[in-house]
Amino acid sequence: KIKLDYGPLYHGKRQDPAMKKWRENRFGQFIHWGLYSIPGGVWEGKTYGYAAEFLKASAGISTERWNGLKDEFNPTEFNGKEWASMAKAMGAKYVCLTTKHHEGFCLWPSKYTEFDIENTPYQKDLMKEFVDAYSEAGIDVYLYYSVLDWYHPDWRTKLKTMDDVEAFERFKTFTQNQLVELLERYPQVKGLWFDGTWDQCWKDNGKFSYELEVLLKEKRPGLIVNSRLRADDFGKRHRDSNGDLMGDFESGYERRLPDPRDTSVTKNDWECCMTIPENQWGYHKDWTLTHQKNTNELLEMLAQCSSQGGNFLLNFGPNGKGVFRAEEKRIAREIGEWMKTNSAAIYGSDYAGLKKQDWGYFTKNTKSGEVYMIVFNVPISYQLRVELPKHQTISKANMVGIGQELQLEKFDSNETFVLLPPKSYTSPFVIRLELKANK
Ligand SMILES: C#C[C@@H]1N[C@@H](C)[C@@H](O)[C@H]1O
Predict the structure, then answer these.
(1) DSSP label at 60?
(2) pLDDT digits (tens, 9 = 90+) for 180-201
(3) What distance in Å separates the CA atoms of residue 160 and residue 188, rounded to the nearest whole number?
(4) Ligand 1: nearest atom to the Cα of 315
(5) Which ligand 1 atom is at minimum distance from the Cα of 51?
(6) What is the pLDDT averaged over residues 374-381?
(7) Ligand 1 centroid to 408 CA: how many Å?
(8) What separation in Å is there between the alpha carbon of 291 and the centre of ligand 1?
(9) How far is the CA of 60 from the centre of ligand 1 (A)?
(10) Using alpha carbons only, what angle is made at residue 178 by residues 282 and 155, rounded to the nearest 5 degrees?
(11) How far apart are alpha carbons 272 and 227 in whole angstroms?
(12) DSSP of 216-254, one letter per residue?
């Protein structure tokens, strides 16, 4: 092993109550909201297909012109309680809101910059309304924070000169001050979701990122941070130079999932963050430009994450007035409908230790030990194959919701077919298995 001074604070999975709750949550709502939500991917009448939160770059907009959007930010239709109730109805157990994205605009009144909500027509502490509303709804609040900051004069992508180094020292102090400020202003916050740490400036500051994680966790015992915060002694990110995870969960799965048969991902906590269109985190006026994932597609991603011991963080992008688009409201409602019947297979679930089959995903409830089959692909044979360890057998299989008991056909090889009534199945469904020791 390579000796590191700035590697992980610990190895393995955290087992404290805060992390156990993170793990039980399994399903979260991501929200990207900032000045980019005003133009929504359209600038001077031209639509730009790239991610809307990068419109400044895509449309080559001057920093001065972009920063002027601050004077238009007035989300009069924002209602924290309404947002929280939509998330609750969807079945989200946690939420992660962008406090500051790469543009540098802060959704909270910060002592350390004037590029914040206080200096907009809206003025009020929107973040407080948001954090209070979601917390009161019983949804854990996480805050996204982009280290990368296009606005701040001391941001440097690379540290090439002594001036760069001195500027970045000021920037590190600014970053630390803002993060401490967020934890002090919003005591309900459970964790911080870092982004924008891919540049050389950050890779050259592994010691600072280590000390920052220590400081923030001292300030807020139990605090949870994603793997994007850290760089190690040699600039390695997410995983250190020995391949060990830094931070409390692996957050490299952005708009992608691991191979469903990859059991190595179960060694750490991890989370997949996902957009509904192909690549729009901030509000974009035109979702017809690319594929829009449908509800069953998103439910399958949620099921896969749970089956491999990971969380699924589904992104929503409200517009500049604070309104979610109709497609997002419909999807939230449809996911919530499915979760009403089937959430036992998701909340508190983990990798079941069974061989992945083509019909869908196994999950295991860590408290009850119950094993679930989440079925997305009904085989033409109507027979769902289950391979169990030698010492186990299925004593019962019931459709969740309707409760119907299903016939079983056992093989000598300790495989079992769960037999489905031959009919059409138009939405994903869950089967609860009762297992018993083999005689
Ligand atoms: C690239 C990039 C950023 N990372 C995602 C989580 C979004 O914030 C996107 O803008």
Answers:
(1) T
(2) 999 999 999 999 999 999 999 9
(3) 40
(4) 6
(5) 10
(6) 98
(7) 46
(8) 18
(9) 19
(10) 70
(11) 12
(12) HHHHSTT-EEBTTS-B-TT--BSB-TTS-B-SSBEEEEE
Instruction: Decide: 55 in ligand 1 pocket, CB within 6 A.
Output: no
Q: How far is the CA of 54 from the centre of ligand 1 (A)?
A: 9
pLDDT, tens digit (0-9, with 9 covering 90-100), for 61-74: 999 999 999 999 99
Which residue's CA is minimally distant from atom 9 of ligand 1? 281
- What per-residue confidence (pLDDT) applies to 391? 87
Return the best residue to mutate from 29, 30, 31, 32 for the ligand 1 pocket (most ligand atoms within 8 A of CB): 32
Angle among Cα 237, 243, 248 to the nearest 5 degrees reads 65
Residues near 385 by beta carbon (within 8 Å), at least 6 away in sequence = 357, 359, 415, 416, 417
Cβ of 31 less than 6 Å from ligand 1: no
CA of 99 from ligand 1 middle (Å) equals 13
> 281 CA to middle of ligand 1, Å?
7
User: Cβ(336)–Cβ(92) under 8 Å?
Assistant: no
Rounded average pLDDT over 258-272:
98
For residue 5, name the pLDDT band (cuts at 50, 70, 90): very high
Alpha-carbon gap, residue 61 to 363, rounded angstroms: 47
CA pair distance 194, 12, nearest whole angstrom: 20
pLDDT digits (tens, 9 = 90+) for 273-328: 999 999 999 999 999 999 999 999 999 999 999 999 999 999 999 999 999 999 99
Q: Which two tokens stand for residue 302?
A: 């949620």
Helix (H, G, I), strand (E, B) or coil at 200: helix
- 333 CA → ligand 1 middle, Å: 25
Task: Indicate if ligand 1 lies below 6 Å from the C-beta of 281.
Answer: yes
Q: Is the CB of 51 under 6 A from ligand 1?
A: yes
Provide the sign of the torsion angle of the four alpha carbons 339, 342, 348, 349, taken in this order.
Answer: negative
Q: What is the pLDDT of residue 85?
A: 98
Instruction: Output the CA torsion 71→78→188→174 (10° steps).
Output: -10
pLDDT at site 226: 98
φ, ψ dihedrals at 433, nearest 5°? -100, 135
pLDDT 10s digits, 24-34: 999 999 999 99
Alpha helix segments (H runs only) across 149-274: 162-185, 200-203, 206-219
Which of 29, 30, 53 to probe ligand 1 with, by most ligand atoms within 8 A of CB? 53
pTM above 0.95, yes or no: yes
Cα separation, 246 vs 164, in Å, equals 27
